[in-house]
Amino acid sequence: MVIGVGDVYQALADPTRRLILDELTERDGQSLFELCSRLVMRHGVTSSRQAISQHLAVLEDAGLVSSRRFGRTKLHHLHTEPLREIAERWPAEPKE
């Protein structure tokens, strides 16, 4: 699957998804239960587990998050490569 820049921007457009990325930046490899708990305790996010799961699916589709099974638990991991590609696409100084 080819991931476009638009997919990344769409994934980043939602504040809850940005908080999920913040939580995975702080502690990578979290389960849905852990993410939901941290979002409630640290940010007051009261979304349901199903809603957080849907946000994770959008982040996965954009290539920003991946998941792997560890027994019965699914762990979520951050991937920053799509963000680097955006940063490298438009350099700070224009070329002459």
TrEMBL record:
Signal peptide (residue range): none
Name used for this protein in its record: Helix-turn-helix transcriptional regulator
One annotated GO molecular function: DNA-binding transcription factor activity
Organism superkingdom: Bacteria
TM region positions: none
HTH arsR-type domain ranges (all copies): 1-96
Gene3D superfamilies, alphabetized: Winged helix-like DNA-binding domain superfamily/Winged helix DNA-binding domain
PANTHER family according to UniProt: TRANSCRIPTIONAL REGULATORY PROTEIN
Cited InterPro entries: ArsR-like_HTH, HTH_ArsR_DNA-bd_dom, WH-like_DNA-bd_sf, WH_DNA-bd_sf
Record organism: Humibacter ginsenosidimutans
